[in-house]
């Protein structure tokens, strides 16, 4: 099969012929890739930022936002059949450790992170586990939803934590209307009841956020902090979800957050 390999850090990926993955464990599933998203983490992997942290031997296939169709299943797979359209969680977790039993699969003690520690989805086929799959509804094109495998669940987790605080009459500031932000706005519109303020440096992204459910859009710049504070009677907003996660957005958030407010921050990597 063909795959895009990371052979050297800080160099373009190489398009090569590699062996197809094989079933080794009873719950293994091989997925025919129908779509693979490009995440900032993928770009950082190419740059070698995580080379020492991960220690993943080169070459390997990156790509952790994947969707496609079940191609082959292990003998103990019961929930999926060959041909089923699926979206793939990045982590193939064991389901047995304390973290998995607590529903914190991202902290699995035996995790296999496709595209980071194991071969990912920039290929024709990828091996994962039954536990990592979610069946797609009929008519859903895997290529259309592949980025939800990471960008979608990342925004979902943050919004689910913040939504109980997003009560009527309160304000939620969401910083960064890129791949995570526009998904986050839609989720907050569904799960929360507060007014949503979107903040971004790009007007086109702000317009999209307003279309998807934000109540107010503020263009980033020298006046952004004062504009946010004006909307909250100069007291600051009750909740901030910072989807950018730089030192600057962390610092600015503290100037826009109400005393006793809640800050949900990401960390840029």
Automatic annotation (TrEMBL):
Pfam families: ADH_N, ADH_zinc_N. PROSITE patterns: ADH_ZINC (PS00059). Residues 179-263 form the Alcohol dehydrogenase-like C-terminal domain. It comes from the Bacteria. Keywords: Metal-binding, Oxidoreductase, Zinc. Residues 26-138 form the Alcohol dehydrogenase-like N-terminal domain. Gene3D superfamilies: Medium-chain alcohol dehydrogenases, catalytic domain, NAD(P)-binding Rossmann-like Domain. Its cofactor is Zn(2+). InterPro entries: ADH-like_C, ADH-like_N, ADH_Zn_CS, GroES-like_sf, NAD(P)-bd_dom_sf, Zn_alcohol_dh. PANTHER family: ALCOHOL DEHYDROGENASE-RELATED, L-THREONINE 3-DEHYDROGENASE. Belongs to the zinc-containing alcohol dehydrogenase family. This is NAD(P)-dependent alcohol dehydrogenase.
């Amino acid at each position: 099969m063909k795959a895009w390999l990371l052979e050297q850090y800080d160099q373009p990926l190489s398009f090569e012929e590699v062996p197809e993955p094989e079933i080794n464990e009873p719950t293994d599933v091989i997925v025919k890739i129908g779509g693979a998203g490009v995440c900032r983490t993928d770009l950082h992997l190419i740059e070698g930022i995580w080379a020492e942290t991960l220690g993943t031997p080169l070459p390997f296939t990156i790509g952790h936002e994947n969707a496609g169709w079940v191609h082959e299943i292990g003998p103990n797979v019961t929930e999926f059949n060959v041909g089923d359209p699926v979206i793939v969680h990045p982590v193939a977790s064991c389901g047995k450790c304390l973290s998995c039993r607590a529903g914190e699969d991202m902290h699995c003690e035996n995790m296999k992170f496709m595209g980071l520690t194991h071969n990912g989805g920039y290929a024709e086929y990828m091996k994962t586990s039954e536990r990592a799959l979610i069946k797609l509804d009929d008519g859903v094109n895997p290529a259309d939803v592949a980025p939800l495998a990471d960008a979608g669940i990342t925004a979902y987790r943050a919004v689910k934590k913040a939504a109980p605080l997003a009560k009527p009459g309160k304000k939620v500031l969401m910083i960064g209307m890129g791949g995570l932000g526009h998904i986050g706005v839609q989720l907050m519109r569904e799960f929360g009841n507060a007014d949503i303020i979107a903040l971004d440096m790009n007007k086109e992204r702000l317009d999209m956020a307003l279309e998807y459910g934000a109540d107010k859009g503020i263009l980033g710049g020298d006046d952004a902090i004062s504009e946010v504070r004006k909307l909250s009677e100069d007291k600051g907003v009750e909740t901030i979800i910072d989807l950018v996660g730089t030192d600057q957005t962390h610092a600015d958030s503290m100037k826009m957050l109400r005393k006793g407010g809640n800050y949900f921050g990401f960390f840029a990597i």
